[in-house]
Specification:
- The protein is of the alpha/beta class.
- 35% of the residues lie in helices and 12% in strands.
- It has a 7-stranded parallel beta sheet with strand order 3-2-1-4-5-6-7, sandwiched between helices.
- Helix 6 links the parallel strand 5 and strand 6.
- Helix 2 packs parallel to helix 3.
Length: 297
């Protein structure tokens, strides 16, 4: 074995920065520019091998965080990508730049996926730009930490559900007529579906719903040859964290996992590539857990 090959093996505990992280707060929905330390989306590390050549993908929340890492990986694997995002225009443009540098087409669609009409417009735009939809990644989500149930405004409860689970229903329903056998849907659930944090009651409830939605839809669409799976991340370092959680929780984010740190978006992207590609052809209604060692059973 060559020395260069030997050097690629690394202790996962030490691969990325560990808590404590710098004190920081952001306004919702947060931006990559203000995140400290910077997140790794695989910009300098992900290497494609043609697994998604010619595919057309939609990624919600694709401007930053996990969505950006998935967009970069998909593009380097040969897919054109439509990025749906709320209002983080600079982050979205940066993600588009990486897609285009990979030689693929990037389409940016801002707007609020909590509204059914906007979800329908995302699908229509993808059909207009790409002519087909092969991969739908339902990744965008809203959360807000609250110390008690009484602190949760009814409007926030409703918005959390509309963004996190209603949007999946809207998007899947609209996309289905444009998806052929071999197409895939990948939903982002969370370790909170199994181990819900008490300060994230609405968010955790939606993640449990996503888990069940995926399992049901995967069975329902199997006859059509369309696979539906989900990924359950643990604590991942994204702008969502300092924009929605108390500063003291941000400082120690990920510290309670067996790997003693937050995960990075780049550590999720290969899982989404797996589920989007033919390598996972016998996987549907499944969940892949990426939790830093936190048990989910």
């Amino acid at each position: 074995m060559s020395s260069s090959a030997e050097n690629t093996q690394q202790d996962p505990k030490d691969k990325y920065p560990k808590p404590e992280y710098p004190e920081q707060e952001q306004s919702v929905p947060g931006t990559e520019a203000e995140l400290q330390p910077k997140a790794d989306h695989g910009e300098n590390s992900y290497r494609g091998s043609g697994k998604l050549t010619g595919r057309k993908a939609i990624i919600t929340g694709g401007d930053s965080g996990i969505g950006r890492a998935v967009a970069i990986a998909f593009a380097r694997e040969g897919a054109d990508v439509l990025i749906s995002y709320l209002s983080e225009h600079e982050d979205a443009k940066e993600t588009a730049r990486y897609i285009e540098e990979a030689g693929r087409k990037a389409v940016l669609v801002p707007g609020d996926i909590s509204e059914e009409a906007h979800c329908k417009s995302i699908i229509q735009r993808a059909v207009e730009e790409f002519g087909q939809i092969d991969i739908l990644v339902n990744n965008a989500a809203f959360q807000m930490a609250r110390e008690s149930l009484e602190e949760v405004p009814s409007e926030e409860w409703d918005y959390t559900f509309r963004t996190n689970i209603y949007a999946m229903f809207y998007l899947c329903k609209a996309a289905k007529p444009h998806m052929k056998p071999g197409s895939t849907v990948i939903n982002t659930t969370s370790v909170n579906a199994y181990n819900p944090k008490p300060i994230l009651v609405p968010y955790a409830a939606t993640k449990g719903a996503i888990q069940n939605f995926t399992a049901s839809l995967g069975q329902l669409w199997a006859e059509d040859g369309i696979r539906v799976n989900c990924v359950a991340p643990g604590p991942i370092w994204t702008p969502l964290i300092p924009s929605t959680m108390p500063p003291e929780d941000v400082k120690t984010f990920g510290q309670n996992t067996p790997l003693k740190r937050a995960g990075q978006p780049a550590e999720l992207a290969p899982i989404y590539v797996l589920l989007a590609s033919e390598d996972s052809s016998y996987m549907t209604a499944s969940t892949v857990q990426v939790t830093g060692g936190t048990p989910t059973i």
